[in-house]
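Summary for the lay section of the report: proteins are chains of building blocks that fold into shapes. Here we show the chain for Ionic transporter y4hA and then a coded description of the shape we predicted for it.
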Amino acid sequence: MTRLLSRLRSWTTSVPLAAAVLLAAVWGRHPGVFLAVVIAIALAGAVLAAVHHAEVVAHRVGEPFGSLVLAVAVTVIEVGLIVTLMISGGPETASLARDTVFAAVMITVNGILGLCLLVGAIKSGLAVFNAEGTGAALATVATLATMCLVLPTFTTSEAGPEFSTAQLTFAAIVSLLLYGLFVFTQTVRHRDFFLPVEDEATRPDAHAAPPSARKAAASAALLLVALVGVVGLAKVESKSIEDGLAAIGLPHAFVGVVIALLVLLPETIAAVRAAQRNQIQISLNLALGSAMASIGLTIPTIAVATIWLDGPLVLGLGATQMVLLALTVVVGVLTVVPGRATRLQGGVHLVLMAAFIFLAINP
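The coded shape description reads as follows.
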């Protein structure tokens, strides 16, 4: 009983539970200013708690499984949120899946990746990683993004940037197959391609005993609760964010970018902390794995959800977005090929991230 009370007093336990209780209390409401501030504080606490529990689970299961846990957990909850909003939101949500997935790709491949490369290069002079695994991940992300977000703009079976039913089914199947093949490659067949390249003896946690199975299971459960709190509270806060952005004259579409930034905060913090420990490969696994999961899990889920969705499903990117995606892929390839990066490469990716945000504000 004493151990249970001690456990409940820990902020990493109490904050996710408090966030879940708050989410249940405010779901479906439009919070006022005071409540919006409380939600923002709870959201920040849930993000930090999620990072802590993800690191506990990662230490128990090892890499690259640890990176996969956080990426998939966030994406599954995010996909559920997208589907819920699309089913209940009406015609104005026709492009929600496209906007959310594209924002996730740009944030992860340019924002998280660039920030981690910059942090790693500042700390060690060079950010060193496995070119084989990172290149395979980037190739998978580029293929999925092109198949699901670019091709709909050019197909002719449907008017507008949409897939026909057969095309959407094909894209969904291909997305699942590619994502499944990548996970098999990452965790079974070529696991060594996705492990940090630094000397294991120099790692800060190299000699730390992994947590017990019981502690890891508790952290896994609390991670799920924390992530539900993060995504759910971000959704509740979206109306306040929307009102705030409208008050300062920003476009409505930018709300999706802000929500994506909030939802991806746990992965961002976890990736930067890994970069600070000189574990650049873990950072890149998180960044590219999140981008891949966002496409590979969202599109198949949306394809099934179209059974209940009314109206069009807009997936094709506009010209400006396609230019940014193409430039991101080219720069990503040039960054990955050497297997090491300087501050310059990190800066270039961050500039692309800044361009994405700026053009979302000023299309």
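Put simply, here is one thing we learned. The radius of gyration is 20 Å.
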